[in-house]
Amino acid sequence: MNQKEKHDKRVLDMYKNHVKNNTLTIEESDLVQNIQFVDQLPINVLKVRYSYDIRFDRVPSKITNLQFTNCPKTNFQGFEQMNQLTILSLHQNQLSQIQFVGKLVNLTELILSGNEIEDLSQIQNLIQLKEINLDFNKIQYISPLRKLVKLKIIHLNSNQVMDIHPLTYLKELQQLFIRQNQIITIKPLQSLANLVICDVNYNLILDLSNMPIIPSSAEDEDEFGFGLFDDSEEEIVQQDKPTKQQLRLANKITAIYEQQEKFQQEANNTIKTKQGFAQMCNKIHQLLTNSMQSHLRWSQCIAQLFQMTDSAISQ
């Protein structure tokens, strides 16, 4: 069998089919590379999952909902002509470049999670977007998001974001999920009056002073005094007070232990005696325990840690 014959065997011809619903799903099609005549089918939802190196001979321009999941090396060029597309999901496709997405100006929902994206400049013209998911990428700068003023939901978990000031322009933002980044302050969020859910777990936030956030009453506080921090997103969404701003701050504990680890790493250079270092570690452990029991502010806790370090150095 020559190469041409082999290639012909890898064609899925959809001509003259009778599709009864509006959805076509192609799953685990390792033997299919070229999908023909999709544009002639009466469908507006196309789902392709766990397939490899797929291309289309004609762009399915009538589709409004396109979902590609785990389809590496798929040729997405030409998809920018799908001007009726409102929902696009490209989860886990090893994408690093997304130029073709920038021309899909009618998109209202965009899912690009689980890729290798660093640059968001290509999506800054998608001004109709209401929801975007960029979880698990390599994003550091989110400035292009400032132009997407209709955004209501943003997922940016597990990236490398430090500065969230561009989000101040998104006055309609209601839900923000930005855990596991490198954020040190959330003060820019205080101007977002419509923000009701904010997940900033596992960042580097240390100071919450002057932030108009919950808890607003004692019964809303958890054992650390921070309030309503269950790990279940469903529980947060289904709270009986949906208009209350809800902030989840496990990053406080993360940050303070990072400070302790830093002290330990620099022990040989800054602490003169092993005895002084051991005493300081014991004091840190005691301080952490007392803070959790007495609802001591973490900013005060950090200040005391630095005082103990100075004391250990002087020994």
Automatic annotation (TrEMBL):
<dbReference type="InterPro" id="IPR025875">
    <property type="entry name" value="Leu-rich_rpt_4"/>
</dbReference>
<dbReference type="InterPro" id="IPR001611">
    <property type="entry name" value="Leu-rich_rpt"/>
</dbReference>
<dbReference type="InterPro" id="IPR032675">
    <property type="entry name" value="LRR_dom_sf"/>
</dbReference>
<keyword id="KW-0677">Repeat</keyword>
<keyword id="KW-0433">Leucine-rich repeat</keyword>
<protein>
    <submittedName>
        <fullName>Internalin A</fullName>
    </submittedName>
</protein>
<dbReference type="InterPro" id="IPR050836">
    <property type="entry name" value="SDS22/Internalin_LRR"/>
</dbReference>
<dbReference type="InterPro" id="IPR003591">
    <property type="entry name" value="Leu-rich_rpt_typical-subtyp"/>
</dbReference>
<dbReference type="Pfam" id="PF12799">
    <property type="entry name" value="LRR_4"/>
</dbReference>
